[in-house]
């Protein structure tokens, strides 16, 4: 697991978006700044190979490039919050979708929809899932990718907040998958919301509720 450096700037960004009185616009703007940091860190975990280019002054620069195709897969709906930043960073990147919802009776994640690139099995995948509470949705999404031929070692989970319980569960079930997060929370309350928390990330990011209690 890679935790972003807990800089003063990152803590200041978290202070804005964790405030239950933050406007939907502020929540989106400051969340997107953290999302960019997460994606940059996640991309840095992918494999690179050497590539040389000639500079405008005629010299050779000994650089790097990705060794394989990269695609994103968002867990609908909160994961879609990360798509715009990823598209800005890698123009033309393919993005798949997975819809997983928790069964109200069994409390288990249930797959409702998936749409993945045909050749995803030969790609490295950034799995976009902002909230890692119990870890059930992330593992269900990873199972979909495994069924599509993606080794877990080729998956990087881009996560906004994680609970210790979720991290332990996912790390045990998928030790080959790398995780990037901006915060490890104190735990979860009786409603399975992480604390100190951020509320429902998807609702707040897309402005479908005016405010959410922590």
TrEMBL record:
Phosphoribosyltransferase domain: residues covered: 5-208
Gene3D superfamilies from the UniProt entry: 3.40.50.2020
Keywords: Glycosyltransferase, Transferase
Entry EC number(s): 2.4.2.9
Keyword Glycoprotein belongs to the record: no
Record GO terms (molecular function): uracil phosphoribosyltransferase activity
Enzyme class: transferase
InterPro entries with a match to the protein in the record: PRTase-like, PRTase_dom
One Pfam family linked to the record: UPRTase
Protein name: Uracil phosphoribosyltransferase
């Amino acid at each position: 697991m890679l935790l972003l450096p807990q800089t003063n700037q990152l803590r200041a960004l978290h202070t804005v978006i964790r405030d239950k009185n933050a406007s939907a616009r502020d929540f989106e703007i400051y969340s997107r700044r953290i999302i960019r940091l997460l994606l940059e860190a996640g991309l840095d975990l992918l494999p690179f190979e050497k590539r040389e280019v000639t500079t405008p002054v005629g010299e050779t620069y000994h650089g790097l490039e990705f060794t394989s195709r990269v695609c994103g897969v968002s867990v609908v709906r909160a994961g879609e919050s990360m798509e715009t930043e990823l598209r800005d960073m890698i123009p033309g990147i393919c993005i798949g979708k997975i819809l997983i919802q928790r069964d109200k009776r069994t409390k288990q994640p249930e797959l409702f929809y998936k749409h993945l690139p045909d050749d995803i099995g030969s790609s490295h995948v950034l799995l976009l899932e902002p909230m890692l509470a119990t870890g059930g949705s992330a593992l269900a999404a990873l199972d979909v990718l495994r069924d599509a031929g993606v080794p877990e070692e080729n998956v990087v989970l881009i996560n906004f907040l994680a609970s210790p319980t979720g991290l332990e569960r996912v790390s045990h079930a998928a030790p080959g998958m790398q995780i990037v997060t901006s915060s490890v929370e104190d735990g979860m309350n009786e409603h399975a919301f992480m604390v100190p928390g951020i509320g429902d990330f998807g609702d707040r990011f897309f402005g479908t509720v005016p405010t959410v209690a922590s």
